[in-house]
Fold each of these.
Amino acid sequence: MKPNFIKLRTEPPVLALLKLLRSRFLLPEETNDYYFSKLKGYEGECYLDSLLATLTSNSLILCDLLLEQNNTTFQIDTLLLSQKTIYLFEVKNFEGDYYIKNGDWFRKTTGKAITNPFHQLKRCETLLRSLLHARNIKMAIEPYLVFTNPLFTLYQTPLDLPAFFPGQLNYLLKKLNQAPSELNGSHQQLTQFLLSRHVIDSPYDRLPSYKYEELQKGVTCRMCQSFKVAISKYTTKCSACGHTEENKLCILQAAKDLKLLFPDMVLTVKAIERWCDYLYSRKAIWSVLETNYQLIHKGKNSYYL
Ligand SMILES: [Zn+2]
């Protein structure tokens, strides 16, 4: 008896892209802020996953679902299906002091309003209910805000706010462990239905515009994104954090990064050589591309796929 993660969480592509971009390009302040809030959110979600993984009762869990209903997309951070109930978790990794006034949410230090998490949760619940209703699926939905950061305080919280605060996460796990947990084929079907409705959005729409020429060329450390690397015959060592990696893996990663940042770019030995600022030999790059990609023969314009 244990939770079954039907859909695992992976690093959001927009986060991977921004991490790459910010090491090679000065991001606008607004985008930088977006990167850090996205990163923080992702860390909070992963933390909740790690807690849910310790559940002892049967449940099916779907992470990071993007669904569409009535031409509206909505994102579910975590959905947990037990025997009788669908638990909907909107995870917030807010840090610092916040308050609620007349139903709106504010940061205490700046007095600036934030997107109302409770409204986000209600919107999710309504759209999910409508999606399930259209399939004639009648299951109880219990939506909750889950706050994961121990440094978070919310003043003037209404008593009926459906939320679990950092000090109450054990209580949440206890509650889930005590929920009836006889699962059958219909539960599996429901998760498969939701999975089939998962849509994939393009991360590129949420990036600032950037050009190849504007990005710094060179080899960055996988761990700390520093350009301060020393390359020897077989390995690349970061002098900032000490991380060492095989050259083969660094070259492969460089090819992947380049393709992720510029999906239309044609992958050639020359392109990787230039992207890595000529730090690896042509022979080393050629060997990595030969092993990991398929060569498309077009004479002088051959490239790898
Ligand atoms: Zn490093």
Amino acid sequence: MLAFYEQVHRSAIERDAADDLSPALHWAGNRFFNRFTDYAHRLGMRKALAYLDTEWGSLKGRSVLDVGCGRGRWTREFASRGCRVTGVDISPEAISRLAKEMPQHTFVVRRVTEAGFPPGAFDLVNSATVLQHLPDESQWSALRQIGVSIKDGGYFVALENCSAFANPFVFPHSPEDWVRMIESTGLRLRASWGCNFEILFRAWARLSAGLRRRSAGGTEVAAGRGAPPSFSRSRNLLRSFVYSSLAVASYAPEWCCHQVPLAAPTHVAMVFQKPKA
Ligand SMILES: C[S@@+](CC[C@H](N)C(=O)[O-])C[C@H]1O[C@@H](n2cnc3c(N)ncnc32)[C@H](O)[C@@H]1O
């Protein structure tokens, strides 16, 4: 997993250093799809940040640890709200770019499972789609380190996958299990919201799986795990066209789902607090 992410960052920077989204979202990189996914994440994170704004009055001056900061999607968001941010990631390339781009903040190449910060060093720890990429035993070690590094009365924001789907690089849990795991480190859930409903993509996935089954004469076609299927150039172009069109059409339904959930979410945004001593 670590080698996988190091390689994802390296090749994303070689391909297009200005594209901050593909290493954090979909590394094969349909830009329309990644922009839509980023929008959907932001709808969930906006609620978490609004919650903290209400609790603290403002995030200005708060110390924030952004674990698995990647190319700095949330590091920048916290910095723009006046926080002092420390970003950690396993990718030396991503970290050295961020250190150049945001010299007033701190960036460290480190695993989220490793100790390294003094206990209670941060007002807030943020993990946006990071724990979900760690195998179970690493999720536990990461949560222990995160719990220790938060001040008494401080917060932990997590945006993680909660829908089982066939992807060898994602280790999701139901929202209830995420809460159980995180609360077992001593943190307490304060609020949570479903996000990334992605209803058009899910409808498309169901339709195309049905079509594949029919064209295979009713035999189940293995999907997801193992070697990725290779497609001809024309099929790739068609796929890219379909994904781009679905992404563009997905903004309004996604926004509606945040008002009235029309489907189960694929991610959950959660705010936890470390009890005051
Ligand atoms: C899906 S990306 C999310 C990046 C960023 N949080 C965002 O939302 O834009 C997951 C990130 O976690 C990092 N990562 C994966 N395993 C890690 C580990 N054990 N310790 C620290 N970072 C890790 C990857 O390098 C990658 O940047």
